[in-house]
Each structure stands twice: as C-alpha cells, then as structure tokens.
Amino acid sequence: MQNSSAQPERAPGKRKRNFAILFVVLLLIAAGCLAWYLLYARYYETTDDAYVSGNLVTLTPQIAGTVTQVSADEGDFVEKGQPLVLLDPSDTQIALQQAEAELASTVRQVRGLYSTADNYRAQVAARAVTLQTARSDYARRQKIFSTGAIAAEDLAHYRDAVTSAESDLAAAQQALRTNQAMVDDTVIDNHPEIKSAVATFRQRYLDNARSTIVAPVSGFIAKRAVQLGMRVDSGTTLLSIVPLDQVWVEANFKESQMNTMRLGQKVTLTADLYGDDVEYHGTIESLGIGTGSAFSLLPAQNASGNWIKIVQRLPVRITLDPHDMDKHPLRIGLSMFARVDIRDADGQLLPQQTVAQPRFTTDVYQNALDQADQVVAKILHDNGQPAAARTTAR
User: Fold this and answer.
1) In Å, how far are 36, 162, 298, 334 from 251, measured between CA atoms?
2) Could you give the strand order of the β-sheet that contains 57-59, starting from the edge strand earlier in sequence?
3) 161 by DSSP, 3-state: which?
4) What is the reported pTM?
5) CA 33 – CA 6 distance, rounded (Å)
6) Is the predicted pLDDT of residue 200 greater than 90, yes or no?
7) DSSP 3-state helix, strand, coil percentages of the chain (rounded to 5)?
8) SS3 state at 78
9) What kind and span of H or E run contains 17?
10) 89 vs 83: CA distance, rounded Å
11) CA-based R_g, the chain, Å
12) DSSP 318
C-alpha cells in the first residue's frame, strides 16, 4: 500500500522536470536563432526570384533579297564575322556594275570640263590678239584717212572689224566664265558630280556586300526563323545570337530588403541547374530604377479607388565572375538563388559618372567602305588620266 501511494506523488515532479527540460530546449533554440540572426542573418538579404539574363542579338538583313544559304542552326556556336546567311547577289551585282560604269563615265565627262576650260582660255587669248590687231589696223587707217589715202568705206570696214573682234572676245570670255563656274576651286577627285557618283557607287558596293550577312558577335544560335528560298525584306528577323559569356543575373528583391543595398556589394548565387554545391560569385552592378509594375505594359492605377497595397520588387543587376562561368556555363532564363552581403554599406545607390567606354561594340561592318574606296581610287586613276599619261606612269 505504501508503494502505490508514493508513485502518484512522484508523477507531478517528473512532469515538472520534463517541462523544465522542454523550456530549456526552447530557450536554447531561441538563443541559437537570435545568435544566428545577430551574427549572420541580418548581414544578408536573399531571394529566389532571380533569373539569368543576357543579350539577345537579333540578326536582320539591311537589304531585301532571297535566301540562298543558311550556315548555322539553333545551338551552333558562331564566331564574330562568320557568314551566316547569304542572299541572292544578282540584283546587287548588276546595280554595282551600273554604278561603276556611271562613275567612270562621270570622271571622263568632268575631265572633259577641265579640257574645255583650257580650250576656252586659248580662245580668249586668240580673240584678244585678234582684237588688238584690229584696233591697230583701224588706228593706222584713221591717221591716213585725212590725207585721202583711204576711202571712208574702207575705214568703216576696219571699224566694224574692231567691233566684231570685241564681240568675239566678250563671247569667248563669257564661255570661259561659264565653264570655270563648273570647275573652279576643284580637282577631279572632289568635283561635285564625281562625289555624287562616288557616293552612289559606295552605296551600291555596300548593298552588294550586305548580301552576305555575318555574325556581329560570337555566341550561340537561337530562335532561327530564316529558311532557304525565303524572300526577306530589310529588318526581317532571321535568327538570334546569344553570347553566353556576357550574361548576368537579374534578382528581384522586395523594396523592404533594399534599404542597405549598395553598388559593389558581393553576392553569392546558386543555380537550380547545378544545385547548392556549385556557387557563383558576383557583384551588384546596378539597383533598379523602377519597379516591374511601373514599366509593365499596363501600369497599375494606384490613384483609383480600388487600390490595394502590394509590396513591390526592384530588379538588381548582378555581374558574374567569368571564371565561374567558364566552369559551369549558364543559359538565359535559368532560376537562381541570390544572397547579398550587405555589411559594407559605404557604396553608392546610383552611379555618379557616365560610362567611359561603350559596353558593347562590333567591328565586323567597318571594312566594307575601305574596300569600296580602293575600287573608287582605281576607277579615278584609270579614267582620270589620258591614255598616254597612264602608259608613261606604268
């Protein structure tokens, strides 16, 4: 009987001890959470609303034509300057040949203007000599007219000869001035008519060169829409090129998370594609200039009566370490998890200086006019000199 009565008395004590243990465990958990927040969590902001973004270079023709060759398909890697699409060059070649002939003809016509000017100068000099002779003859006859050695009719003829010589000289001078107005202060290379013909030739040369469409950047083909035999116009989308070495991450943080975010802060990221074992390192390059809803196709009408407050998100652009990209390449649109280290809050919210160098540039279109100018120089040389002079020069 004594044992049965003692057991209920010990039960409340055991229950109190269990509650005490549970309280201590909860207290330790709370202390651990508080320590984790104070020592680690408060210095980081995280989001899983982050995605890989990049440049999508759209390839479009600059002239109209019929597609005769497509050199790459989706997923293929292409180098900058590599020919990708060829258009039928028949029309552009004919136009180029016509422009070349017109330039050569114009050079010869302008060269004729300079020759005509020299001819008119010679005519003016000859007319001036004729006038001087006529005046001298008239002056001598006028002196002997009073002695009766010459008839009045003959003297009138000499006076008419002076008048005629004066008219011939004036006509020759006017023709010279008219011709000089077309060639004064110019040489063959910079004559207006030749410059116009050269501009036409250069345009036709560019049109012919643009029948071969090249890759402006190195990257991977995506969204190919061009097909053989397709008739394309200027500006038609043919395909896209994605340079995967120029991708970045766009992380959308809540506005309440961005109080201490600054440019240049370090970011650690993981991709769902590779899992948590693969980490990427990045840097905040820019903080959003506006929320997604502000730039949407149909912006929210917050001034209306049915307004509901919604926490907005701002896009944060994060550049990635190229070494991480080399080991584990990313694709556009992949999901990412971003963790920003906000301990260093000395950076700027917005950039204070303009961009010193162009962010993106290509030089694949710079050589076409240089080659055209070489052809122009040859045409000017071949048609701007007399045959004898060219033979001597050779």
Assistant:
1) 24, 96, 22, 12
2) 57-59, 239-242, 219-222, 77-78
3) helix
4) 0.71
5) 41
6) yes
7) 45, 20, 30
8) strand
9) helix 2-39
10) 14
11) 44
12) E
Tell me the pLDDT tens digit for each residue of 280-299. 999 999 998 888 777 777 77
DSSP 3-state of 174: helix
Give the residue carrying structure tokens 């001298």: 136
Residue 314: CB atoms within 10 A of its CB come to: 19
CA-closest candidate to residue 68, choices 213, 195, 173, 249: 213
Q: In the chain, what is the greatest distance between 2 CA atoms, to the nearest angstrom?
A: 190
- Give the contacts of 322 (CB within 8 A, at least 6 positions apart): 245
DSSP 182-228: HHTT--GGG-HHHHHHHHHHHHHHHHHHTTEEE-SS-EEEES----T
Quick check: 88 and 66 in contact, CB under 8 A?
A: yes
Binned at pLDDT 50, 70 and 90, residue 52 comes out as very high
Residue with tokens 């008839």: 151
CB count in 10 Å sphere of residue 222 = 16
Distance of alpha carbon 46 from alpha carbon 41, whole angstroms: 10
Q: What residue ranges in the chain does DSSP mark as E strands?
A: 44-53, 57-59, 65-70, 77-78, 83-87, 212-214, 219-222, 231-232, 239-242, 248-254, 266-271, 275-287, 313-320, 335-341
pLDDT digits (tens, 9 = 90+) for 222-231: 999 999 999 9
What the block records as the tokens of 246 is 């120029």
C-alpha distances in Å from residue 67, one per residue of 89, 94, 233, 324? 10, 18, 11, 40
Residue 11 has phi, psi (to 5 degrees) of -65, -45
Residue 181 DSSP one-character state: H
Q: Which residue has the tokens 């002076």?
A: 162
CA gap 37, 300 in Å, rounded: 36
**CB 212, CB 65: distance < 8 Å:** no
